[in-house]
Known about the structure:
- By secondary structure, the protein is α+β, with helices and mostly antiparallel strands.
- The chain has helices spanning 19-28, 60-68, 72-76, 100-103, 114-127, 176-181, 237-244, 248-259, 307-327, 335-364, 368-383, 385-395, and strands spanning 8-15, 35-38, 55-59, 80-82, 84-89, 95-99, 109-113, 131-134, 138-144, 149-155, 158-169, 185-201, 208-214, 217-224, 228-236, 266-267, 273-282, 286-287, 290-292, 298-299.
- Residues 1-5 have low confidence and may be disordered.
- It is globular.
- The chain has a domain at 8-50 and 117-187 and 279-406: FAD/NAD(P)-binding domain.
- The protein has 12 helices and 20 strands.
- Helices cover 36% and strands 31% of the residues.
- The strands form 3 sheets. Strands 5, 6, 12, 13, 14, 15, 16, 17 and 20 form a 9-stranded mixed β-sheet that branches.
- The structure holds flavin-adenine dinucleotide (FAD).
- Flavin-adenine dinucleotide (FAD) binds next to helix 1, strand 3, strand 9, strand 12 and helix 9.
- Flavin-adenine dinucleotide (FAD) is lined by residues 15-21, 38-41, 50, 54, 56-57, 114, 138-139, 170-173, 176, 194, 196, 232, 275, 294-295, 302, 305-309, 311.
Amino acid sequence: MDGLMTRRTFDIAIVGGGMNGAALALALNGSGLSVALIESLALDAGYRPNYDDRSIAMAHGTACILHDIGAWEPLRQNAEPILRIHVSDRGHFGFTHLDAEEEGVDALGYVATAHAIGAAMAAGLRTAEGLHLFCPATLEHFAAGPDRVDLTLRQQGQPIQIGARLLVAADGTESPIRAQLGIPVREWRYGHHALTANVTPTLPHQGVAYERFTDSGPLAVLPLPGNRCAVVWTALDHQTEEIMGLDDDAFLSRLQQRFGHRLGRFGMVGKRTAYPLKMRQVREHYRQRTLIIGNAAHAAHPIAGQGFNLGIRDVALLAELLIEAARAGGDPGAETLLQAYASGRDRDQQGTTLITDILARLFTSPLPPLRVARDLGMLALDLLPGAKHLLARNAMGLGGRLPRLQR
Ligand SMILES: Cc1cc2nc3c(=O)[nH]c(=O)nc-3n(C[C@H](O)[C@H](O)[C@H](O)COP(=O)(O)OP(=O)(O)OC[C@H]3O[C@@H](n4cnc5c(N)ncnc54)[C@H](O)[C@@H]3O)c2cc1C
């Protein structure tokens, strides 16, 4: 870790050491670019809110990127392969399934806790010799000019001045950098919370991820190592407080009622957390020498488990453009590079948040015509192998043009 360094200018300063900022730092390590990572929470802090017990379903393509940046090996043993996805509508006829074997892959994706992903990222960052970690340190102020961005950090109570040719904001949903730049966003709340908890079923989960649509919202039960299951339960805002207030036995029995007995009986519930759900999308990806990525640029309903999968595709394209520019002796903060990033990522970001939004509305609506439509849709998918294959490719993060890291 650097001490009190003053007025050094880096090629890239990344603010935010969450999953996306940390992944970008690892992707650029060894590229010849000088990179500073600024994160306000210590790497070894016992509890980091963004690396908590929530479970992250990672697409096959995400695992490929993590592999290439060296974060997959330390994570592998804590990530459970998804062998089958089973989607059903509680009490109605529609259901469909996707199968790794039918798709000719070892796994459709993987599930790990955010905590395990954070530990794997931290292990990589600690040993990455080319990175300058300002951690814990907080960005307090920045000013972009035509040639560089000046940043004022605070570390151990002391102000530090550094410069960067490109500032990357990976500073999360409430992004202070985005706010300071006044970048407009499109956003709305869903009126739902996602309640998360990890439970242990009496029957083996056999690598099956369940997405079950119920009258009060979708319920995902995802496989974790050690035959644990991660529960992501979408509840209406007004139900959230009541469900969070239940004791463990009452919570488990409510969960059992919603999910049924495919996995036997649920027991041993871990810590429960409730997250308010909103959709957000930036209207501009960059301003002078400053680029917005990850949750700072987009937030989606977790119904399709796309947040990190989308963010890491931002990371993959940005790393590819920066490394190409470095090889050609180009400027990492050049307007042409920022424009190439924006046009390369806009479609995926807009498309993924839009589809997730449609799914969230369709699958959280109790209206009978919408319920019939979704049941017919699932039935059609199950009967049309071509459509299912397309869905599986997208679920694996392999749809559309792939950045080099993901290939
Ligand atoms: C319930 C739930 C379930 C989810 N499930 C899935 C899933 O199954 N699959 C999936 O792909 N995604 C999922 N997600 C989304 C995923 O968790 C996020 O997309 C991901 O964590 C975002 O990472 P990030 O690095 O962009 O932002 P963050 O994790 O928010 O990181 C931002 C970092 O910036 C730091 N920071 C902020 N300001 C400053 C500053 N001024 N100076 C220094 N540091 C600063 C913060 O300390 C923080 O560490 C889920 C989310 C939720 C809530």
